[in-house]
């Protein structure tokens, strides 16, 4: 019997490596990565100069020159000052309307300073009595006065602000700076009122008396009597 021919397996096509274009892309990418890594390395060693970010933030100051509006001479001796801190909690809402709709609550921490001074410009004609023979001085001064509290905005800040839904929508279409100003004024008023009962006036009287006694003692006076009129 004739033998049947064994079937011949189809020839496997030879594996093709990456094309020339693919090899070129790989080579270019490798060279680019090598250049970038070299630049970062040289920049880290301060070999290459630094380059500014072309998209960095820029601030342009177009403010006008400062205008001096007034000037006055002061005859005050600032004898004491006090630094105070107050927490202001203001809430503004509408009656019979839920707070989640119409509501504004601000929690603000205010820090301010109050100065206590003696105004030497308010001295009367007979306020100073000098006896050069006995080296004595009698001086009657007006009572100490307190200035309005000056808020330190670098130490004052808003802790929390809650607004209702409709209030937030309304604020998106208008800007009301008076509300924030009212918070500042409330903090300033509370600090000013607190300073009146803080003992600053008594401290100012003591410091003023010590200053004048030391001043006139250096001028040769042996007895210096300082008193204050009633407020």
UniProtKB/TrEMBL annotation:
Entry-linked InterPro entries: DUF4230
TM regions (residue ranges): 20-42
Alphabetical keyword list: Membrane, Transmembrane, Transmembrane helix
Protein name from the UniProt record: DUF4230 domain-containing protein
Source organism of the structure: Actinoplanes siamensis
